[in-house]
Amino acid sequence: MEFTRKNRQLLSRIATNDRHGENSPYFDGWKAYDSSPFHPIHNPDGVIQMGLAENPLSFDLIEKWIRENPDASICTAEGLDKFKHIAIYQDYHGLREFREAVAKFMGRVGGNRVTFDPNSIVMSGGATGANETVIFCLADPGDAFLVPSPYYAGFARDLRWRTGVEIVPVHCKSSNNFRITRAALEEAYEKAQRSNINIKGVIITNPSNPLGTVLDKETLRSIVSFVTDKNIHLVSDEIYAATVFSSPRFISVAEVMQDMDCNRDLIHIVYSLSKDMGFPGFRVGIVYSFNDDVTNCARKMSSFGLVSSQTQFLLASMLSDDEFVGNFLRESSKRLAKRHHVFTKGLEEVGISTIKSNAGLFFWMDMRQLLKEQTTKAETELWRVIINKVKLNVSPGSSFQCSEPGWFRVCFANMDDKTVEVALDRIREFVLQGKEETKLEADKSQAQAQRWRKQNLRLSFSSSRLYDESLMSPHMISPHSPIPHSPLVRART
Amino acid sequence: MEFKRKNKTQLLSKIATNDRHGENSPYFDGWKAYDNNPFHPTQNPNGVIQMGLAENKLCFDLIKKWIMENPDASICTAGGVDKFKDVAIFQDYHGLKEFREAIAKFMGRVGGNKVIFDANRIVMSSGATGANETIMFCLADPGDTFLVPSPYYPEFARDLRWRTGLEIVPVDCKSSNNFRITRAAMEDAYEKAQKWNLNVKGIIIANPSNPLGTTLDIATMRSLVAFVNEKNIHLVCDEIYAATVFDSPRFVSVAEVIQDMDCCNRDLIHIVYSLSKDMGIPGFRVGIVYSFNDDVMLCARKMSSFGLVSSQTQYLLASMLSDDGFVGNFLRESSKRLAKRHYVFTKGLEQVGISCLTSNAGLFFWMDMRPLLKEQSFEGEIELWRVILNEVKLNVSPGSSFQCFEPGWFRVCFANMDDETVEVALNRIRAFVLDRENQESNRSKLCWRKKHVRLSSSSTRLYDETIMSPCMISPHSPLVRAKT
Questions:
Q1: How far is CA A105 from CA A68, A101, A241, A261, B152, in A?
Q2: Which of A415, B304, B317, B471 has its CA 20 to 30 A from that of A395?
Q3: Range A79-326 has CATH code 3.40.640.10
Q4: CA B52, A292, B161, B282 torsion: positive or negative?
Q5: Are residues A304 and B130, on separate chains, in Cβ contact within 8 Å?
Q6: Cβ-Cβ contacts under 8 Å, B8 against chain A
Q7: Is A140 a catalytic residue?
Q8: What's domain A16-58+329-433's architecture?
Q9: How many CA atoms lie within 13 A of B110 on its CB side?
Q10: Which of A86, A88, A125 is the closest to B307 by Cβ?
């Protein structure tokens, strides 16, 4: 296109930088899937999608409810008389019934330990919109937020792209199950201060993506104390709150605050129905702040991402049906627990461990023992093998800014039971093969070592033979490692 | 609280603590007056009638009928619930293919079938509000400027500027030539911006115009396209009222105009569209960004993650808008009803000597109240506005809230009420106008007599109390806040 160079000057900096995160090499996983998606009959050798944190396990319950509640839709004979009023309704406060239903739902998901105020419920375009909106309210371009790693890859875009705000990772380690320690927070904060970076807050995801773990009360209290001491914000993304399927239970930051002396103006929650209910298409994001100024500001900004009134109306009805909600939450947890168990047990049988988790739509798989070396390069290499040979689109830990190589996030809820079997078989086969190869390699190395010892005896005779061909086994030659660009990530969930 | 609280405002961002959201304007009084005392034909017949909201409530019966006849279009009916799962899980920012195709087809029809819109260029946003902001994020950096012909939609102040950090420089249009956007006015605004060291990145127009209700003619459109090409700046056309055209001349999309202009750099041309006005469904948040620039399209699509259209809504509209029979009938009937409503009002006003700008589109008309101003100033306009609001009990929007260059014009919405309310509103306006004219007439006579009788005696008495009417007290400067 002849205007291309000019084009770059024509557009904004935002439009021409990479902070949307989609130019990452990790996109290859998506490409591999899109080029050859698995289908049990049409394409049984295709790539199985295990990189998408979706929750379709309980749609049957929702469909049943919808059939039984035609009034909930403005398109049924029963609901059509509401169409006009709903279609014209664009007030950014949102339908009162919707706000009340969402507040009640959030309360239930939090184990009924907290009452959420419908007047503090603010809409947004999914959690994507909610996170961006909160950052716009709290920080100026150039400011930074601390984010415990590993963290959701989309944060790079949601928190930074159009806001101009930066992320400073707080690296968490496997040695203590990736807990967020006060020490790690302090260290990251000090480092930022030394570099003249203005930290405006911390953003956590609880339950965690990608770990699938919930934060315990102590950690939550410690984080709340930390932000209060530093007078910075705490944003708690609780989007996976209702995906908790075993103990310990989910504890919202709202609950923790109730028993603490803290500055409530610093505390903000982001919520969504995309994961808990499996409705990412409906774009239901919520900003819930304990700071009135932030609530008011976020509400004004919600004009840029309101929930469709048609959808508000449907969900107002659905989520205020106490019985349905109770049954849904129980059943959803059961099914997630079962699916999680099937996978983790299956992996255990071939010696692959996962971090002990009780929530989320994925598990955090430990493949460190399969790495040729404990480096990000090796992780990427292993990842490419898993995508291209094993044909599973899983997500490598480096795409979540994990500081230790060898971890992979594997989504388990977005497929049917048969596909689960196929996926498990493939992983098991790969791991066993890998062990065999490793054993073969080990034997080979041993044999080579013996030969080397024999050769050493010849050293005194000729040095040129030190580099025996047999030593130059393939694994000694560095492969053409696909050096990843700095892990800017493009992920859809 | 024992914790030392920093000044609250330091905790928040500059964006959160400035006024660029536009809601702190004194014009908010109009909304307050309505909210405190909303008109109801039986329960509150003396309440304030809402004439400040550009909503289109005239054709819901047609939509409802279609929905009854097409239960499969909903994922919540017995006929459609088997689609629920697939639709609810669908969050791809490309949008449902059927939705994009239906929208592209609809836009083509609205443009008189003179253009074919490419379904692959359709990008979603959260209403036109989201679309306008997204486009700005793609085209300009903080501190950059867009030219905007005035009078213009008040919320541009928020949508174009608030979170983007951009500035607006108005292109002043005048009643002497029916507020046409002239080349001279554009050049003038451009030069002014340059003198102020502002980097102009483009011009944004609304066609049909809000608040004027007029469509741009082909000559003006070509002039705009030529202007942006010469300056190598962008042209954003907000065509949100395209299907509200109810009379000739027909609507001409910028897409049609550029087809015949070889010299045009299509990378500079972008359209914003929405179904909020044409279909009357603002609650559904259906905004569209349609750019002829591939890079902008791709960027806007990535940004659409912040404001996608609910897949439930996409699904419904994909079905509705691809029903050619329904769409044809809807567009025809909608135009007819708007024309009739417009006629009733403008004729009614004519009868009491109030003229309106000749218009053929929109959900409002641009009313000329200059003869009723006590003085030809913005203070005079505000005084008149407060009287209309508080005494006549009509929430209309004063021209200054649209940055109109000349005082005395008011935007009056006519499509958001039923026929009975139309009658009540018209009667109130007519009564007010006649009353005001009488008052003015008496006052002038009185003032003239007093002035002439006392002139010889004492200059201090010139300032007779009867002359010091409330209208002489200046209101705050016309910062604007309007909802649509």
A1: 20, 6, 11, 26, 42
A2: B304
A3: yes
A4: negative
A5: yes
A6: 265, 293
A7: no
A8: Alpha-Beta Complex (3.90)
A9: 29
A10: A125
Altogether, the residues listed in chain B come to a count of 484
Q: Verify that B131 and B200 share a domain, yes or no.
A: yes
In this structure, chain A runs to a length of 493
For the question of residue B343 being annotated catalytic, the response is no
Q: What is the pLDDT of residue A198?
A: 97
Cβ B283–A89 below 8 Å, yes or no? yes
**What's residue A136's pLDDT?**
98
* In B397-474, alpha helices (H): 419-454
CB contact under 8 A, A10 and B268: yes
Taking the CA of residue B352 and the nearest CA in chain A, the distance in Å comes to: 33
Task: Please list, in sequence order, all residues whose beta carbon lies within 8 angstroms of the beta carbon of residue A389, skipping any fewer than 6 positions away.
Answer: A430
Examine the residue annotation and report whether A275 is marked as an active-site residue of this protein: yes
Which has the closest alpha carbon to B472: B445, B443, B452?
B443
Give the 3-state secondary structure percentages of chain A, helix then strand then coil, rounded to 5.
50, 15, 35
| Active-site residue (options: A74, A180, A223, A239) | A239
Q: Classify residue B442: in a domain, yes or no.
A: no
* pLDDT tens track for B377-396: 999 999 999 999 999 999 99
Which positions 15-54 of B are in contact with A (Cβ < 8 Å)? 15-17, 21, 23
CA separation for the pair B213, B133 (Å, rounded): 23
Q: Is B289 helix (H, G, I), strand (E, B) or coil?
A: strand
Burial environment of residue A60 by CB neighbours within 10 A (0 to 12, 13 to 18, 19 or more): exposed
Which DSSP category does A240 fall into? T
Rounded percentage of chain B residues whose pLDDT exceeds 70 = 90
B257 and B388 together in one domain: no
In our burial notation (b when 16+ CB lie closer than 10 A, e otherwise), range B145-160 reads: bbbbbbbbbbbbbbbb
- A to B CB pairs, distance under 8 Å: 248
pLDDT bracket for residue B424 (50, 70, 90): very high
What is the per-residue pLDDT for A439?
A: 73
Contact B13 A137 (CB under 8 A): yes
Q: Where are the domains of chain A?
A: 16-58+329-433, 79-326
Q: By residue range, what is the domain housing residue B95?
A: 77-323
- Mean pLDDT (whole number) for B303-308: 98
Q: How far is CA A110 from the centre of its chain?
A: 20
How many independent structural domains does chain B possess?
Answer: 2
Q: Are the beta carbons of B8 and A59 separated by less than 8 Å?
A: no
Q: Let me know if B195 is a catalytic residue.
A: no
Which is the catalytic residue, given B159, B172, B238, B368?
Answer: B238
Confidence of residue A234 (pLDDT cuts 50, 70, 90): very high
Distance CA A209, CA A151 (A): 6
Partner residue facing A63 (CB), from B60, B81, B311: B81
For position A450, what pLDDT does the model report? 77
Q: Does the pLDDT value for residue B6 go beyond 60?
A: no
pLDDT averaged over every residue in chain A: 90
Instruction: Give the pLDDT of residue A9.
Output: 80
Q: What percent of chain B has pLDDT over 90?
A: 84
Interchain CB contact of B132 with A (< 8 Å): no
Chain A residues whose beta carbon lies within 8 Å of the beta carbon of residue B23: 300
What is the C-alpha to C-alpha distance for residues A263 and B109, in angstroms, rounded to an integer? 56
Determine if the peptide bond prior to B211 is cis (ω within 30°). yes
Choose, from B240, B258, B354, B429, the residue flagged as catalytic.
B240
Which residues 239-298 of B are in CB contact (within 8 Å) with A?
Answer: 265, 267-268, 276, 280-285, 293-296
CB contact under 8 A, B307 and A129: yes
List the catalytic residue out of A48, A143, A230, A237: A237
Asked if residues B246 and B335 have their Cβ atoms less than 8 Å apart, the reply is yes
Task: Kindly state the average pLDDT of the residues A106-113.
Answer: 96
Q: Is residue B197 part of a domain?
A: yes
